[in-house]
Amino acid sequence: MRVLIVEDEEDLASAVKRLLADAGFSADVAYDGEEGLYLALETPYDLVVLDLMLPRLQGERLLGELRARDQHVPVLILTARDAVTDRVRLLDSGADDYLIKPFEGAELVSRCRALVRRASGQSAPVLVIGEMEIDMPRRRVRRAGVDIALTPREFHVLEYLALHRGRVVSRSELLDHLYGEAEETMSNVLEVFVAGLRRKLGADVVQTRRGHGYIVEA
Amino acid sequence: MATSSRRRSLVQRLSIRAALWTALLGLTLGTVASWQYWRVSLRAIDARLADEARTLATRITVREDTLDIDVPGELVGALEIDQGYYGVFEEGGQRLDGTAPSGPDPGAGLPARRVRQGYREALAAGPRGATVVVGRSLAPIYGDIRRLATSLLVASLVVAVFALPMALWLRQQLARSIGQIDETARLLAPGQPARIDAARVDAEFVGVAAALNEAFDRLERALAREQQLTSDASHELRTPVSTLVAETQWALGRPREPDEYRHSLEVCARQARRMKDLAESLLTLARLESGTLAPAHETIDLRELADEAAAELQPLARARRVTIHVDGAAALRGDPVQLRTLLSNLLSNAVRYNWPDGHVHVRLSQGGDMVGMEVSNTGTGLDPAEAHRVFDRFWRADAARATRDGGTGLGLAISRAIVDAHHGTIACRSAFHQGTTFSVELPANVNAGLAQDHGL
C-alpha cells in the first residue's frame, strides 16, 4: 500500500513514515501543501495522511482541491485542533478520518489500514479467498489452516491483488502501489514476487493475463 | 451570609435619618408657627384692649369733685364673654369702679401695656389723674397654641412614621436598580457577553453601570487573551509531543540497529529542546505581559549590548554568509537582560530570514530624551500587509515556516512586550524580497517615560 504523508515537521514526518513502513506501507513525504497536492494528483496513492498547518497551501485547502478534482483517495487528517466544530468541519469537507496530535503510533497504523480496507470495499480485516485467509492487521497468510511464511513484499503484492480481486491489475499499477517514489525498482521484480507466491501458496493463486497484468480470482 | 447582620444597611440608615429629619422639621415648624400665632394674637388683643381703654377713658366725666363713670354696656358684655375686666382708679390708686385687681404701677407712663397674672392689660389715662385698666385673660391663646403645637407634633410624628415605609419603598427601588447590575454580574462568565443594559437602570446608576461594563470588557479581553495563549501554547506543544511519541514508539516497536537508535535519540533531544525553549519563552512572555517582570533601571551602553548580541550571532551569520554591521551609539536607563534579549531576537530574525551574502544593519541613535534602535536586513521580506502581524504570538510567515528552523514563534511577541515594559514603541516595515526593518524607540530614562505616559 502506498501512502502520501503531507507534514511540514521533518522529524514527525520521518517518524510517521517509519511507523507506517513497519506496518507494510510505502510512504512518500511532502513538506508543504503545494508539493503535497502535486504528488497526490500525480500518483495513485492508497491513502493520504495530511497535516493541517502547512506552508504554502493549508491542509484544508489541499483537501478541498483534491475533492474538487474528483480524487477519492482516503484522507486521514492529523490535527492539533481538538474542538468538535473543527472535527465536524473537516469530516464534512471530505476528510475520511482524523487523529488529534499527539497520537498513538499503533492507532495511526490501524486507522490507516482500516481506511485502505474500506476504500477497496472491504470491511473484514481478514480476507478469505477459497482455502486462503489473508489476515491484514497481523500480516499473516494461512492456506487450509496452515501458516505460510511470506516476505513483506510478497505479502504486499498478495494483499493488493486480493483487495482488488476479480479485477486485472496492471504491472504499473501494482508497482505504483508497492514502492515509494524514492525506492529503486528492477524491471523483473514483480515476476520474482509472483513466482514466490505461486511456489508457497499454489500455482493457481495469482494468474497472469498476458499483456494486461495479474489477477486473483474472487 | 454571616456578615450581613453586622453589616450596616444603607436603607436602614436612610430611614432612621429621614424619620429624625422629619421630626426635627415638625418641631421647628411647630415652634415657628406657635410663636407667630402668639405674636399675632397678642397684637390683636393689644389693639382691642387699647381701643377699649381709650373709649372707657372718654366716658369718665368730671362732675364737681367726683368722677362720673359711664361704662358702655357693649364693653361690659364683651369683657364678660372674654373673661376680662376693667377698672377705673383715681390718682391715689384707689379703685373707683370695676373689678381690675390692681391699679397703675407707680411712676409708669400712660398709655401702657402689661401682663398681670395671666391677664393682658391696657392702661389709659383719664381726667384728673385717673387711670383706666382693661384686661383680658391670655388663657384662650395659650390653649390655642397648645392645641396648635400638639397637632403639629402629632402630624410630624405621623409623617416621620410614614417615612419608614417610604424607606422600604426606596429600598425596593434601589434593589430594582442594583438588581439589574447584580443579575448581570451573576450572568457574567467566560464567553458570556452579558452587559448591564444602560437603558434599564436609573440615572443615578448610569455611571456605575458604564464603569462596570467597562470593567467587564477589560476582564473579558484579558480572559480571551489568556485563553488564546493557552490554546496557542497547547497547539504549539502538540507537534513536538507528537514527534516524541511517534519516534519513541517506532524505536521501541522492535529491535533496531545502533544507528537507528542514535537517530531516534537525536530526534527526541531536538524535540525536547524545542519544548524547553517554548516553555521558557511562554513563561517570559507571560511574566512580561502580566507586569511581574518589571524592568530594572540601570544605565546601559546600548552599543556594548548590540556588539555582544552581534558577536553571539556570528556563528549563525557565518553559516549563512550574512554580515552584521553595528553603527552609532546610545545610552539609556533600562533592564540590561531584557534589552539584550530584544537585540538578540531582532538580530537573529534579521540573520535567519536573509539571503546568502546578505547584510544586517544595527543603527543606534540618541536624540533628546529618546533612544532609537533600527535593525534592518537585506532579506526575504514579508508581505507588507502582513508586517503588523509579526508581533502576534506564534504567528510565522509562510516562508519562516518553510525554513523549519525550530523558532518558537514567540521571539517578536517577547520583543514587543520588552519594548512595552520600557514604555517605548516598536514597528515593522517590510517589502517582499527587499528586506525588513524593525524600528524601536525607547525613552532614555524609563522613569521620565513613565511620567510622560501618565501625563505628569
Task: Please outline the helices and strands.
The complex is a heterodimer of chains A (218) and B (456).
Chain A: E1 2-6, H1 10-22, E2 26-30, H2 33-42, E3 47-51, H3 59-68, E4 75-79, H4 84-92, E5 97-100, H5 105-119, E6 126-129, E7 132-135, E8 140-143, E9 146-148, H6 152-163, H7 171-178, H8 189-201, E10 207-209, E11 213-215
Parallel strand pairs in A: 1-2, 1-3, 3-4, 4-5
Antiparallel strand pairs in A: 6-7, 7-8, 8-9, 10-11
Helix pairs in contact in A: 2-3, 6-8
Chain B: H1 10-58, E1 60-63, E2 66-69, H2 73-81, E3 84-89, E4 95-98, E5 112-116, E6 119-125, E7 131-137, H3 139-187, H4 203-253, H5 258-290, E8 298-301, H6 302-319, E9 323-327, E10 331-334, H7 336-352, E11 359-367, E12 370-377, H8 398-403, H9 411-421, E13 425-431, E14 435-443, H10 446-453
Parallel strand pairs in B: 9-11
Antiparallel strand pairs in B: 1-2, 3-4, 3-7, 5-6, 6-7, 8-10, 11-12, 12-14, 13-14
Helix pairs in contact in B: 1-3, 4-5, 5-9, 6-7, 7-9
Walk me through what this model shows.
The complex is a heterodimer of chains A (218) and B (456). Chain A is an alpha/beta fold and 218 residues long. Chain A has two domains: 2-119, Response regulator (Rossmann fold), CATH 3.40.50; 126-215, Orthogonal Bundle (Arc Repressor Mutant, subunit A). Chain A has helices at 10-22, 33-42, 59-68, 84-92, 105-119, 152-163, 171-178, 189-201; strands at residues 2-6, 26-30, 47-51, 75-79, 97-100, 126-129, 132-135, 140-143, 146-148, 207-209, 213-215. In chain A, strands 2-1-3-4-5 form a five-stranded parallel β-sheet, sandwiched between helices. Chain A has a four-stranded antiparallel β-sheet with strand order 6-7-8-9, covered by helices on one side. A two-stranded antiparallel sheet of chain A has the order 10-11. In chain B, helix 5 runs parallel beside helix 9, helix 6 (302-319) runs parallel beside helix 7 (336-352) and helix 7 (336-352) packs antiparallel against helix 9 (411-421). In chain B, the strands form four sheets. Chain B has a five-stranded antiparallel β-sheet with strand order 4-3-7-6-5. Chain B has three domains: 10-143, 2-Layer Sandwich (Beta-Lactamase), CATH 3.30.450; 203-285, Helix Hairpins (Orthogonal Bundle); 295-453, Heat Shock Protein 90 (2-Layer Sandwich). Chain B has helices spanning 10-58, 73-81, 139-187, 203-253, 258-290, 302-319, 336-352, 398-403, 411-421, 446-453, and strands at residues 60-63, 66-69, 84-89, 95-98, 112-116, 119-125, 131-137, 298-301, 323-327, 331-334, 359-367, 370-377, 425-431, 435-443. Chain B has 456 residues and is α+β, with helices and mostly antiparallel strands. The A-B interface holds A 8-12, 14-16, 18-19, 22, 31-32, 53-56, 78, 80-81, 101-106, 108 and B 234-235, 238-239, 241-247, 249-250, 253-254, 267, 270-271, 398-399, 401-402, 404.
